[in-house]
């Protein structure tokens, strides 16, 4: 399968002289669900932010399809078929649910926008009764749904999520992950950073393990789940019971 | 008492118009722009310049002290003020935005304010001037209340503009983008909003409103180069009172400050009037720094 | 020749007094990163405070306590420091620019009070006939001025040395760490707000002291001495000299004040009387250009000093963060 997103030898950080990630490479293809795990400070969030154009890249390449993303302004990313859901502050609390969606659909022509927003409410029916409510009044799980719904509005080929399960009850996590799996089956590529490593690896095709800003391990998720190296270092001393 | 109410509403309306632009720039551009009030000075004087340069007849419109020429001149003044705002952003702020902390931007605006104020002083002189020498008779509406037709016009125009701005922000895609950037710029960018475009339109809306507010002040009071300088405190107080970034808050804040100033004259000597906004500001900062309505990106 | 020398003494006294103000501002901005937009206000508080304390008792005035000059000087400085405390307490926990707005407000309000509170400040006429310290000891007023200059220079020198000491001290190092990165400094276990407040109040007091010295020399005080343009002049002096650095600050005073007086002189010679006030705005434009151009061309020069403080603090902060238990 040819890769949809190719990242090679990526070095980036908030300041050019202080890189947080150093020479990281990864690929993801259409219809794949790939997880990125690793301890705190490994640079997982930084990697995603750099791909999304939110952090300066000092070295390396990022290619989506045939398009190089390095140095592009982040607001153009949705035009190239990429969507990004940050870990925190991923919805506009002072705007209503409807306005949040309308904002996400802004890049689209008017009729398409309306159709996509309608589809979003079909996909996430729980949001319907909160249409006119300020998004800040939603629960954590509902906010996450809204954030994901918003990201899907432009029909992206690739959606990147930073810790989608953070702060959610287990049932909610199941629901969110369920949506992601459905997406992947529909041909979208999903790249997610997760702290909830075991749950994420169980639903994903491949996993990358990062530490201290570099690649450490990668491979099919089911194999890595069994790998004692991963279990020992990143899932906890007790053998990774979750 | 009633007279103080009317006068306060008038001043408050002018404060509100200036404060809207300021709250937008503070919420979206995220720095306290000391040069905003000077845009009011610039707008007021540009209108004067247009009037005198073209030797337009100042035949008044009905009971007002001014006529079509001033209205036309105001439109031109808006354009010139927007041009100034965009120029300053291009020359100064844009180059600094990503490189320096926002306090340096505040400081730059402080210096730019000095420049604008003194360029106006250099060109137009320091004496107080007026748009017209027409005298206006106040109409006695109630036993205790005298209103001038100019004041009615000012208040009506202010109300119309406030409603227009509010509708713009609530209903249009651009307005939605601006509100989003005001809350969370990086999330807005992730959503596909062009920051450069939002910044440009913030200056345009803010600059146009400032110009109108400046002209209205010139009509209601007088034109002096220190016009803006003396309005800075009331404007900042209005913005912080209402909640930084909150347009409705800025309007309410402006009107409140106008009213408080007006009523304060009943109890304290008139010379201290300018200190009132400062006291209000201190009280707000001590008690509720996020303002009455809470801002979009308010105090820490 | 004597005329030039007399003028030079006067010029240097003003320069030295402004230098003291600039050092106070440098403590606030260069070392602590606080933007004081109302410098003239604190200067005025110190001046009026001193004037009220040392002035002769007059029936119409509340003040006039005929205190010794040193007491008046300290009183003025303390009053200015107190104003800094009020403003600092309100704003230091909040967005940085709120301090700028609040100090700007002080600058304007103090001028208002000076103009209107006639019973205390003498209103538009100000307070006159203030006793100049130790004036009777001198037969010739020129000799007195020279002696005053020497004293003022000594005071400035003392302040300079004291500030250098303070800056090298542990307190001073924390101050600079806070300026570079508040979060990192907080993670090192220091209370940034309290320390910044201390620096701000101290800086304000120094400005007040400068005001008192001015009053001691001139012998009267009035609102015209405290126009808003002074704030900009002092700021221009600070940034021309390069902030974070007291030596440069003093150089900045000489340069800016020299240009100001020179341009003022030329305008006086060239421009017809009716237009002099207008032409005076050229001076202000020059100051504004200095400020804006310096910011455009050397913004890091404003934040001053080397990165050594910040990267050190940042590393400590990162280590402290890593030691925290995993969420």
Secondary structure topology:
The complex is a heterotrimer of chains A (242), B (300) and C (327).
Chain A: E1 5-12, E2 21-28, E3 33-37, H1 44-51, E4 57-64, E5 67-68, E6 82-85, H2 97-104, H3 110-123, H4 140-152, E7 158-162, H5 170-185, E8 189-193, H6 197-203, E9 206-211, E10 214-220, H7 221-226, H8 228-234
Helix pairs in contact in A: 2-4
Chain B: H1 2-28, H2 36-53, H3 68-97, H4 102-124, E1 139-142, E2 145-147, H5 149-171, H6 173-183, H7 185-190, H8 195-220, H9 227-242, H10 247-264, H11 275-287
Antiparallel strand pairs in B: 1-2
Chain C: H1 2-31, H2 39-54, H3 69-91, H4 96-116, H5 118-121, H6 141-168, H7 170-180, H8 182-187, H9 192-218, H10 229-241, H11 246-270, H12 276-297, H13 299-303, H14 308-323
Concise structural overview:
The complex is a heterotrimer of chains A (242), B (300) and C (327). Chain A is an alpha/beta fold and 242 residues long.
How would you describe the overall organization of this protein?
Chain A has 8 helices and 10 strands. Chain A has helices at 44-51, 97-104, 110-123, 140-152, 170-185, 197-203, 221-226, 228-234; strands at 5-12, 21-28, 33-37, 57-64, 67-68, 82-85, 158-162, 189-193, 206-211, 214-220. A 6-stranded mixed sheet of chain A has the order 6-7-8-3-9-10, sandwiched between helices. In chain A, helix 5 links the parallel strand 7 and strand 8. Chain B has one domain (14-226). Chain B has a two-stranded antiparallel ribbon with strand order 1-2. In chain B, helix 1 runs antiparallel to helix 8 and helix 2 packs antiparallel against helix 3 (68-97). Chain C has 327 residues and is mostly helical. Chain C folds into 2 domains: 1-227, no CATH class; 228-327, no CATH class. Chain C has 14 helices and no strands. Chains in contact: A-B, A-C, B-C. At the B-C interface, helix 3, helix 4, helix 9 and helix 11 of B face helix 3, helix 4, helix 12 and helix 13 of C.
